[in-house]
Amino acid sequence: MPRFRDIPSPADYAATVAAMAAHASAIRAGTGGEEVWLLEHHPVLTGGTSASEADLINPGSTPVHTTGRGGQWTWHGPGQRVAYVMLDLAARTPDVRAYVSSLEGWIIDVLGQFGIEGTRRDGNPGIWVDAGDRMDKVAAIGVRISRWVTWHGVAVNLDPDLSAFDAIVPCGVTDGGVTSLHRLGAQVDMAMLDAALRSSFATHFPDPGP
Q: Distance (Å, rounded) from C-alpha 180 to C-alpha 176?
């Protein structure tokens, strides 16, 4: 079972990415173990490898970072739980699609514990909820895999300032919105969300054994 670490928050984005890269290298070298980091960031806009400049609409004073994870633009900040997952897929299942599917299943399971029915959406990574006339994203997924070691991960909207997403076209999606657990009526705090993330993890990422 990977070690879960609570990272002091709000955490600087660039420094955290550098620390993740170092830990991923240690896993590959056999000098570090699998870990999941739980944290919140200072407000920041991040663009993945598929991000389009046209989708960066109005960043204002919010810092902007391009990064090596997959995906397009997203926002991180207070009220959003980020889970950075660093696993050795070579010792598990070296399959990118299976890994992403497991991340999605993990978050769907967590949301279900709070009465929220999360779902996948073909062609649009992340976890979505049915908002009647559209689908709204409640959790984003953006991963990087370097020689079968994973880093980056997922971001679950607990109760962030959703207007912050107006600075971008979130994940390049124009026919859906962004929502949060609180907007969906879930009476849950960060400690409860973290407990659910921890308790559900092994179901979707069982110990690979010796």
A: 13
Strand pairing report for 119-121 and 80-86: unpaired
- By the 10 Å C-beta count (0-12 exposed, 13-18 middle, 19+ buried), 14 is classed as exposed
The yes-or-no verdict on residue 171 having pLDDT over 80 is: no
Q: Annotated catalytic residue: which of 154, 171, 173, 184?
A: 171
Task: Let me know: does 181 contact 157? Beta carbons within 8 Å.
Answer: yes
* Fold category of 3-203 in CATH: BirA Bifunctional Protein; domain 2 (3.30.930)
Q: And the tokens for 72?
A: 């397009």
Distances (CA, A) of 118 to 2, 43, 66, 143: 25, 25, 28, 19
Q: Are 112 and 127 in contact (CB under 8 A)?
A: no
Whether the Cβ atoms of residue 89 and residue 149 lie closer than 8 Å to each other? yes
Q: How confident is the model at residue 149 (pLDDT cuts 50, 70, 90)?
A: very high
* DSSP single-letter state for residue 192: H
Q: Is the pLDDT of residue 44 over 80?
A: yes
The answer to whether residue 85 is catalytic is no
What is d(CA 14, CA 46) in angstroms, rounded to the nearest whole number?
A: 10
pLDDT for the residue 210: 64
* Contact between 75 and 166 (Cβ < 8 Å): no
Give the separation between CA 83 and CA 189, rounded to whole angstroms: 16
Over residues 117-146, the mean pLDDT reads 93
